[in-house]
Amino acid sequence: MIDHSDRLASHKEGTFPGVGGLDLYYQSWHPEGKVRAILAISHGLGAHSDRYNNVIQHLIPKQYAVYALDLRGHGRSPGQRGYISAWSEFREDLGAFLELIQTQNPGCPIFILGHSLGGVIVLDYILRYPQQASLLQGAIAIAPTLGKVGVSPIRVLLGKMLSRVWPRFTLNTGIDISAGSRDPQVLAAYAQDTLRHTRATARLATEFFATVDWINAHAADWQLPLLILHGGADRVALPAGSDIFYQRVNYTDKLRIEYPGAYHELQSDINYREVLADLEDWLERHLPSGVVQSRRGSGELEFPSS
Length: 306
Prior knowledge:
Distance between the termini: 45 Å
Number of domains: 1
Number of helices: 9
Number of strands: 10
CATH topology: Rossmann fold
Helix content: 25-40%
Largest sheet: 8 strands, mixed
CATH architecture: 3-Layer(aba) Sandwich
Mean pLDDT: 87
CATH class: Alpha Beta
CATH superfamily: Alpha/Beta hydrolase fold, catalytic domain
Shape: globular
Strand content: 15-25%
């Protein structure tokens, strides 16, 4: 769970209207003083916005604000667990979330990060809406599920068969919790997490696989700075999937880092400090030219003289 006692950040919670008027939950953390940039986070299947404490603790002292939402059917947001009627719901919800952030922070640079299923949502949104995406500074996909996934082929087949006749049919994903992290304390926290779920519906399965196919087919259209981080020993989202997508992206400003032996929840694995250092380095290099390193301890932005 998130430690909200950190004096470096002010924590806020709220809701915003998603597709169909569903009030989706989000939370944000703002550093004291001026914000240099914002990182918006879209979580993975069965997860929620509380799962990124290490990212928040690392970036807040660097004068970044962080926003994270709970997807529909996840965390504190309403909706049947693990259900969508169409993938466009995820896509449009993300668009509404980004609009909310832009409204609350006019003119502030925004980066978008998607983890696992959230990575697929982010990549799809950017490819579908290149004009809106051009307002972003860049995109980060951590362990995106773009290829083979650690779900039984029988479960996948059953989901595809039932999607049309019983779209809300729910199965346990069967994903091994120990595949998340090599840190036993992290795994123990996951097991006690009452907001976490392991459900996926038949309709979500078919929408997911169709979206992954579409993303891979349109990878050459990518036009935004891109960072992909993946664990070499990820059994949930096999790393070959993100590598294939990465190779198909023709845009020159792209970087993919694979961490040997690392698991699916890179932000909470035993090498998370290395991962967050790489993330910070990439963010720093992609800030607008008018935003440079803030004065140590002042929290003030420095702009070049005109």
